[in-house]
Automatic annotation (TrEMBL):
<dbReference type="InterPro" id="IPR001509">
    <property type="entry name" value="Epimerase_deHydtase"/>
</dbReference>
<dbReference type="InterPro" id="IPR036291">
    <property type="entry name" value="NAD(P)-bd_dom_sf"/>
</dbReference>
<dbReference type="Pfam" id="PF01370">
    <property type="entry name" value="Epimerase"/>
</dbReference>
<dbReference type="InterPro" id="IPR050177">
    <property type="entry name" value="Lipid_A_modif_metabolic_enz"/>
</dbReference>
<feature type="domain" description="NAD-dependent epimerase/dehydratase">
    <location>
        <begin position="7"/>
        <end position="242"/>
    </location>
</feature>
<protein>
    <recommendedName>
        <fullName>NAD-dependent epimerase/dehydratase domain-containing protein</fullName>
    </recommendedName>
</protein>
Length: 314
């Protein structure tokens, strides 16, 4: 039987955060959410609003002053500015949120005596690599200010693990997709953009030749990895969370075309600055330290995702 825990989720009204909050509520944990609602939406939490505590806060605010000195069993730090493209245009703004905001949350964890800190890191830290699979012991070489900012967050997390009595773990996500991902946000990822454009009969814009690959990972697998990370005794490490496979954008388009059974208007444009060509993960460490393996293959997950968007849009 699981022990009920007091947990805090930053960015809990966002895409991944709201899915995690629901997973935590299902496990009967005591959940507090903070989100500044710049990209998150309270309606994503409407079905659990009576089971959580919600605070409209920015992660750069004085959290101790705003929510009090609460010793959480686990802090899931998910709040971030998630856009590579935006970070190229406005790097200082992204760094303030992703680096300073993470340090601010670590300070709250230290001062409040919180026990565990699970950090949502990013595969963008790896940059462009020659390897077929990115492993955690590779030298990170991020290509964008976003990747740099998320890697800086990892270093701060590890620093606090070694200096203070906080158990930490960094989960490096690879191209997460699924239900509740906002297709209209300025930070929207490729899958919700493509699906909603296809459903509306609009063009699908590919930056590059479409041969670039990603390790697309279903959000429910990400949630499960976070729940496992909360329980693990392993600390001070970074762990890839993905599928261990790779899908090209052209293959993604074919899957959407097949799933929706309609022709698509695909337009190819120049590659954007900061975008990497290939990204794929080695997840053997996740299996070893978390007991994690993906439960959903790409075909299952993309079908579930398309069904969800189709219900919302049509």
């Amino acid at each position: 039987m699981e022990i009920k825990k007091r947990v805090l989720v930053t960015g809990g009204a966002g895409f991944i955060g709201s899915n995690l909050v629901k997973g935590l509520v299902e496990k009967d944990h005591d959940v507090t959410v903070i989100d500044n609602l710049s990209t998150g939406r309270e309606e994503k939490l409407s079905d659990v609003k009576d089971s959580i505590k919600f605070h409209k806060l920015d992660i750069t605010d004085d959290i101790l002053d705003r929510i009090g000195n609460i010793s959480f069993d686990c802090i899931f730090h998910m709040a971030a500015n998630p856009s590579v493209e935006f970070s190229v245009r406005r790097p200082l703004e992204v760094d303030m949120v992703n680096t300073h905001g993470t340090l601010n949350m670590l300070e709250y964890a230290r001062k409040s005596g919180s026990k565990k800190f699970v950090y949502s890191a990013s595969s963008a830290a790896y940059g462009e690599t020659d390897c077929s699979n990115n492993t955690e012991d590779m030298l990170p070489l991020p290509l964008s200010p976003y990747g740099v900012s998320k890697l800086c967050g990892e270093y701060y997390v590890r620093c606090y693990d070694s200096l203070f009595d906080i158990s930490t773990i960094c989960l490096r996500y690879f191209n997460v997709f699924g239900e509740f991902q906002d297709p209209d946000s300025q930070y929207a990822a490729v899958i919700p953009k493509f699906i909603t454009s296809a459903l509306k009969g609009e063009k699908l814009t590919v930056f590059g030749d479409g041969k670039q690959t990603r390790d697309f990972t279903y959000v429910k697998d990400i949630v499960r990895a976070n729940l496992l990370a909360m329980e693990t005794d392993i600390n001070g490490q970074s762990v890839n969370v993905a599928t261990g496979g790779s899908i090209s954008l052209n293959q993604l388009i074919d899957a959407i075309k097949k799933g929706l059974n309609r022709p698509l208007n695909v337009v190819y444009e120049d590659v954007r600055d900061g975008d990497i060509k290939h990204s794929c993960s080695d997840i053997s460490k996740a299996l070893e330290v978390l007991g994690y393996r993906p439960e959903f293959d790409f075909e299952q997950a993309i079908k579930k995702t398309m069904d969800w968007y189709e219900e919302k849009i049509l």
